[in-house]
Design brief:
Elements lengths: L1 E7 L4 E6 L12 E6 L2 E13 L2 E6 L5 H7 L3 E3 L15 H4 L3 E4 L4 E10 L4 E6 L3 E5 L5 E5 L4 E4 L6
Parallel strand pairs: 7-12
Antiparallel strand pairs: 1-2, 1-6, 2-5, 3-4, 3-6, 4-5, 7-8, 8-9, 9-10, 11-12
């Protein structure tokens, strides 16, 4: 849902880079999980606010700048069961990771290995016999079928 970008001031606050649609979405969650794939630790949010087009937060147990510096670069997550249900036609990125990507001719182009945020629209990073970057936008995305584990795309093999 985001990452700790840098320490903020001297009293343990951190500057946060949210990966959410809205800058303040992380403020809805009182507990953040910070870490990497190797491990996560829970931190209660003591205070947080929007400050000059970014988010800053004070986390319980992080009382000075050196403790905040130690958190720099860590990812921010919340428990999946805390997230609201995705609306029709919307998807959480982690729901898309690992799905097969198949074009309209039935050719499997690979699996979604990641998603890039470009500003204009998100882009699927698809790993198969070669890596492809496929815009996650209509009319290129024909169908997302989470139950079947497949995304159907209007995308040629030679693109």
């Amino acid at each position: 849902m985001g990452r700790i970008a840098a320490p903020y001031a001297v009293r343990g606050w951190v500057k946060v880079q949210p990966f959410t649609e809205y800058l303040d979405s992380l403020l809805d969650y009182p507990v953040w999980r910070l870490g990497k794939k190797t491990g996560w630790q829970e931190y209660r949010v003591v205070d947080a606010k929007i400050h000059s087009n970014h988010l800053v937060a004070q986390l319980e147990g992080v009382d000075d700048r050196s403790q905040a510096e130690a958190l720099q670069g860590l990812e921010i997550a919340v428990a999946r069961d805390e997230l609201p249900e995705a609306e029709e036609g919307e998807y959480y990125w982690d729901d898309l990771i690992g799905l097969d990507v198949v074009n309209q001719d039935g050719v499997n182009l690979g699996k979604v290995a990641g998603i890039l945020e470009t500003g204009a629209h998100d882009v699927l990073k698809v790993s198969g016999e070669r890596e492809r970057l496929i815009p996650f936008t209509e009319p290129i995305i024909v169908e997302v079928d989470l139950k079947a584990g497949r995304i159907k795309v209007d995308w040629g093999v030679d693109y």
